[in-house]
Amino acid sequence: MAGSPTTGPPFAGSLAATQVAIYRDEGYLFPVPVFTADEAAELRAAFEAFEARWSDDTNLPRPFAQYLRDGMQVISPAADCIARHPAVLDVIESILGPDLMVWTCELLAKEPHSPKMLTMHQDLNYWGFDAVGQHVTAWIALSEVTDENGAMHFVRGSHRWGNVDHHDTFGADNILSRGQEVTVAHDPADEVVVALSPGEMSLHDGLMVHGSGPNVSDGRRVGVAIRYLTPSVRMHDGRDDYATPVRGDCSGAELLMLPVPAVDFDPETVPFHERMLVAHDETLGAGAAQPMVYDGVRTVESP
Question: Which domains are assigned to the chain?
Fold first, then answer.
């Protein structure tokens, strides 16, 4: 059944063969329990403490929202910790194999009664990578996630469509950096609401068509999205990009390796994070008619 992990371990551990088969067939899998409710609450507290410490800092060179949305694992020990947590990596290894890198980690929060949403899109269409099947997004719920508070919607089997055409909307309430949206229609019967409890995770393929609606509830929806890659991933056009090795042997990777922060905005890792952001501005913004936007704020680097 779509949205069910069927048989498998109650917490952590590798996925069962039936779960991997569902993921391969439908392009997604959920719910996958990886943390207890108490562990999820602790993780949420760590991320929200990061927000409280830094959101009003006027000395940051970029809008704070961009630091939450791209490469948090390089400037936040809390983000690095969840990205390399064995409970998460054991699951990802079941799909991608033993050698794993994190391309980026994001905190994705929707405030109560926020109109913020995501149009239906494919991630891989904008990432600049040359391979399919070598990327998995793990979306970990740190709060209850429902359709009312802005849960993702997946289009079952859309990962088999290949790269489809998109157009940019630059919508004021669109969380996506350029408001990208697929130009092809889908059968509403194939759309699945990705409802999760705190500590549960969803997985989706880089070509999965997905989006989400606004938060019309009284509560804050909080999740962390982690983009995992194999070391075999290459860039289309020879541009530089970066990743954090988290398991196995990543020595053959073409992507440049990122260091691990010891403290928030570690002076040793911030320069690497900035180089990564510049690379992502160039790649994600390629061909866009105007600069990318993060939660209503333009990026420093124009595409």
Answer: 17-296 (2.60.120.620)
